Fold:
Amino acid sequence: MATSYSLKIITPQGTAYEGTVVHTFLPTENGFVGVLAHHAPYLVSSKGGKMKVKEGIGFEKDFQVGPGFFEVNHDQAVFLTQTCTTLETVRA
Structure:
C-alpha cells in the first residue's frame, strides 16, 4: 500500500508545485489540517498562510499561499489558490 500521494498547487499563473508527497499541513478557515495518503475524500476552503509539504524522510518544502480551496480524492490532491511563494526547502 503506497504511503504517498500526488499534490498540485495551482495559481492563475500556472502550476506552482507538482510532486509526490507523504504529508501536507495546510491552513484552513478554522485552523490547520494534515493530510496523509489514503485520506477520505475532502474539500476545504483555506484562508491562506503557511503550508508545509513533506516529500519524504528529511525533505520538506514550505509555501506561503493565498486564500483558496484544497481537495483530496483517490490519493490526488489539488490546492487552488491566488498566490503561492516557496519559502524554503529543508533537508533534515
Remarks:
- The CA atoms of residues 70 and 79 lie 4 Å apart.
